[in-house]
Amino acid sequence: MLHVLWDEANLWGVLMLRALSAWGLPLRLVRASEIALGLLERDPPAALIVPGGFSSRKSASLRQKGLEAIRAYVAGGGAYLGICGGAGLGLTTPGGLGLCPWTRQPFEHRLQHFASGHVHLRPNRASPYVPPALSGEPLAPVWWPAKFRPYGREVAVVAAYGEPGPDFLMADIPLSLVPTQTLDDWEALYGVRLAPAFCEDDPCIVAGTFGSGRYVLSHAHLETPESPQANAWLAHLLVALAGTACPGTPAPAWTMGEGPPAWEDAGLEVAMAGLLDVAGLGIQHGLLSWREPWLLGWRQGLPGAQLSGLLAMLDQARRMDPPEAARAFWAGQAGEFDRAASLLTKGLSGYLLAERLALTLWRVDPQAVPERGLREARFSLFGPPPGMGGAKGGGLCGRVLALLEEFIWLCAGRGAT
Q1: In this structure, which of 90, 171, 247, 313 has its CB flanked by the most CB atoms within 10 Å?
Q2: Separation of alpha carbons 266 and 305, rounded Å
Q3: How buried is 37 (Cβ within 10 angstroms: 0-12 exposed, 13-18 middle, 19+ buried)?
Q4: Contact by Cβ (8 Å): 52, 221
Q5: How many angstroms separate the CA atoms of 381 and 351, rounded?
Q6: Residues pairing with 81 in the sheet
Q7: What are phi and psi of 212, to 5 degrees?
Q8: Mind listing the pLDDT tens digit for each residue in 32-56?
Q9: H/E element, 213
Q10: What is the Cα 290 distance to its own chain's centre?
């Protein structure tokens, strides 16, 4: 049985859940509170998988007792696979697990961390965590990764970064569409270095031991739908870490909100339609786009990641077959969900239109739509950002996500067993 930490995973948790489910693997979504109460000791999994998301929020959910429980599980012979934010949680940082002695580079130049898309990886062919069948420099996606900071004892590098792939973006700019000379000119003229924080040959996937156990930390999102080389790598890691054989066929993509729901709930359908309309509004005004059928693209500075996460969680909730415990929970929370989702939909629409107006008027009068008002709107909708008191998702978005998170867990976690 594979355990997937569900707290604070949102879109990335949905991607992992969908990939593992498509491969028919036995899995259980687990909450931080269950781990803190001894779940890993009572029912040790073949591997604990921690998907992407903000590592600080995952740490806050686990608290000290949960962090200690994971360390004890791995030290006792367990296996830990951390993807992006899950990789960050495994590092030796404040609030981290300390499985890996390395730390994380600080975000000195934030623009350089807004890298996304496929990148070529340079595998260490001697590593048992590299699939033998993948030749050359396979492509794998990264989504706004941090950067490992080597510190202390040696850690095995499973794969290093190579060159960006054809769909690679820096913020909202496709690098493949900007000539190299133009990039050099921008740096010389404006002091803007439009390059990812990582450099070629920097570590992307690392591995090591902790006590009697093992860990693999990957900045590459190997669970990304229809990324065949990345998906084959994830399948290989599951065999190597957990002995869990799986086909490793490309994880299927899906379109947000497409198809009939697996169960009937008017509130979920209204919320889904409303947020898809919000996305459509943003697209009409040139603020958003559909980068993938399951992922929005957005202009730099807009809350496209949060909206994508909301849509993914809503879509997953409507595709579940809820057991009795989940239905009972939802029946008790439906009124709160409907109210919060309605307010969020209206608030997002107004906020996106204000951002559109600010964009139009910026060259004429930069203060016509004060940034303070936009910040207050974002705070109301999403709460404070991580690193500024946002240890837990907040605002209207946080209220909606908390209900969806609990419901999906009841469908695929303890409530489903």
Answers
A1: 90
A2: 25
A3: middle
A4: yes
A5: 9
A6: 49, 216
A7: -90, 0
A8: 999 999 999 999 999 999 999 999 9
A9: strand 213-218
A10: 17
pLDDT digits (tens, 9 = 90+) for 193-248: 888 888 899 999 999 999 999 999 999 999 999 999 999 999 999 999 999 888 88
- Compute CA distances 236 → 48, 62, 86, 273, whole Å: 15, 28, 18, 38
Distance separating alpha carbons of residues 93 and 106, to the nearest angstrom: 11
371 burial via Cβ count (<10 Å: 0-12, 13-18, 19+): exposed
Whole-angstrom Cα distance, residue 6 to residue 66? 13
Identity of residue 206: V
Residue 412 token pair: 């695929």
SS3 246: coil
Q: Which residue is it, tokens 């969900």? A: 337
- Quick one: tokens of 169? 């973006």
Element (H, E) at 317: helix 304-319
CB 111 within 8 A of CB 170: yes
Lookup: tokens for 216: 């693999």
The helix (H) or strand (E) run that includes residue 119 is strand 115-123
Q: How far apart are CA 307 and CA 315, in angstroms?
A: 12
pLDDT per position as a tens digit, 275-330: 999 999 999 999 999 999 999 999 988 999 999 999 999 999 999 999 999 999 99
Task: Say which residue the tokens 């299927």 belong to.
Answer: 252
**Amino acid identity, residue 199?**
C
From its phi and psi, is residue 375 left (phi > 0), alpha (psi between -120 and 50) or beta? alpha
Domain ranges of the chain: 2-242, 266-416
Output the DSSP codes for 81-109: EEETHHHHHTSSSTTS--SSS-EE---SS
Determine whether domain 2-242 maps to CATH 3.40.50.880. yes
Q: How many CB atoms lie within 10 A of CB 125?
A: 9
Distance of CA 286 to the CA centre of its chain: 24
| Residue-wise pLDDT tens digits, 363-417 | 888 888 898 999 999 999 998 875 544 445 689 999 999 999 999 999 997 644 4
d(C-alpha 342, C-alpha 348), whole Å: 10
Cα–Cα dist 6/33, whole Å: 11
Which is it for the CA torsion 289, 316, 10, 122, positive or negative? negative
Name residue 263's amino acid.
Answer: W
